[in-house]
Amino acid sequence: MKLLDRPLRPGDPIAIIEDEEVNRRATGWIVEEADFTPVPVSVIPSSVDELIAEIETRAVAVICDHRLGRGGNVSYYGAEVVAMSNRRKIPAVLLTSYANSDENSSIRRWRSEIPMLLSRGSDSDPERLAQALSLAEDECRGVYTEERKPYRAIVRVQGRRFGPEGVVAECVVTAWQPRTTVDVPASMITENMGVPIERLLGKRLSAEVNIYASTAGELYFQNFKMGPGVPSGW
Fold first, then answer.
1. Rg (CA), the chain
2. Which CATH number does the domain 148-226 belong to among 3.30.70, 2.60.40, 2.40.50, 3.40.190?
3. Which pTM value belongs to this model?
4. What's residue 182's pLDDT?
């Protein structure tokens, strides 16, 4: 069955990607309470492409943890799995204990294709899961809420620092909150523009940003370009 053939409905198989058994069982209970059928993936492949291929044969939607490499040879993050799954039109939700600590770093790279991020514990209930799956399904069909729509916006690189996962660019999105800095993995900018981050400090760039997001963690960034220069006389 392809997603676009029909909406998700009760009893549909939902893949659970989680490397810890206790969390896998807990997520399975939530899936059952939401009237879906849990399909636990107990052995996570070393290749994200292999995992997506397995999902496609076993389920019609996905719930995935973020940090999947504990005690195994998995080198990718769950955020990448969720983004790739949604790109393939398989509704996917990220459910993790590391939502607060990772949303401004390792999750940011794939946030544009993660409709809703759920925090294990506070968001671990059937109603929130059903809401997140519904939002993911809508975006797979090309329907976006105002908070998730991208707009071309000015992004100023105000500073940089070294974080746990590499260099972080401290950015200001003028159309969002001009007095608030937002962390963006520097590699997202440099890979897009081919310019070292050191040469972009203080520069005004432009990017596609969901400027109506309510929190910094919900912001995503795409397609960085050099922005307009500062008008003379400023």
1. 19
2. 2.40.50
3. 0.91
4. 96
